[in-house]
Amino acid sequence: MSNGKVLACIDASPILPAVCDYAAWARNRLQAPLTLLHVLEDVPALAENEMAGNIGLGDREFLVRELAELDEKRARLLREQGNFLLQTAAASVAGAAEQVECLQRHGGLADTLSELSGDIRLLVMGRQGSSSNSLRPQVGSHLETVIRTLSRPILVVPGAFRMPDSVLLAYDAGPSTRKCVDMLINSPLLQGLPVHLLSVGAESTTARETLSAAEQRLRQAGFEVTAVLRAGEVEQTLLDYADTHDIGLLVMGAYGHSRIRQFFVGSTTTNMLARTTRPLLLLR
Q: Could you read off the pLDDT of 197-251 as tens digits, one per residue?
């Protein structure tokens, strides 16, 4: 997480203010440029064949013209709405970032982010997009696709902004979580925040030694560290620990080993993202 910009995905969901606040926070911590992105999904044209039925040729031609005009008007209104959202979001972070770039693109969100990925240092997304109509916390389909395809750090925002004041790192000694430790040490994003290292698994000499090694690396880098090894079901143990210690930010590898690997590869990924009330930083 050393080069590039902070990129925040903007849409009309209620979580927009929190996405802006976390993006501004990350921008200030990283001292990186901030870009706000709004993607206009390709909306299918109105189905003229289905609507025309068996009406006469003249009426059909009139209907086709009317449908084309409606499509054009709809596209224009969507563009205007996107511009309004971007300008509103840019105004909300004006005090936190001297220059804010606003981008509006057409196409799929995952494809657009893949095209821009070379310049992304950190991606900030809401857990739930504007297309969701459920009152139950859930993970938007776009977010799931992006997590599985984008090889960039992703900060997932589940609710209202709270200044991160502590970090919980789910540690399993695999390559992904070792990379998390490297990120904590080398990136200014979380410098100075107390770190809780939590390894979920059975007590063993190996587990203790690997956890202690990570703890010492972080301490040598100047972090205040609490290292804990606990038995239990991974997802619930992480959530319970975060609640008990009022953790401000969760950090996890998108892929790992042992039991935490199961956590990220299967459907439990969606469950964890849906259940947590805290921002979640995912690393590949």
A: 999 988 899 899 999 999 999 999 999 999 999 999 888 999 999 999 999 999 9
pLDDT at 135 over 50: no
Residue 274 has pLDDT above 90, yes or no: no
The residues, any chain, with a CB within 8 Å of residue 251's CB and separated by 6 or more, are: 167, 168, 169, 170, 180, 183, 184, 190, 280, 281, 283
Show Cβ contacts of residue 70 under 8 Å, excluding neighbours closer than 6 positions: 46
By CB atoms closer than 10 A (0-12, 13-18, 19+), residue 63 is middle
Taking the CA of residue 33 as centre, how many other CA atoms within 13 Å lie in the half-sphere pointing to its CB?
Answer: 11
Residue 263 has pLDDT above 50, yes or no: no
DSSP string over 111-129: HHHHHHGGGEEEEEEESS-
Vertex 184: Cα angle to 197 and 266 (nearest 5):
60
Question: What does the pLDDT read at residue 3?
Answer: 78
Using CA of residue 128, residue 132, residue 134, residue 139, what is the dihedral sign? negative
Residues 216 and 43: their CA atoms lie apart, in Å, by 53
pLDDT of residue 117 exceeding 90, the answer is: yes
Average pLDDT over the chain, rounded to an integer: 83
What integer is the mean pLDDT of 24-45? 87
What are φ and ψ of residue 120, in 5° steps?
-95, 125
- For the chain, strand residue ranges (E) read 5-9, 34-40, 100-106, 120-126, 154-157, 167-170, 195-200, 225-230, 249-253, 280-283
Q: Enter the DSSP assignment of 175.
A: H
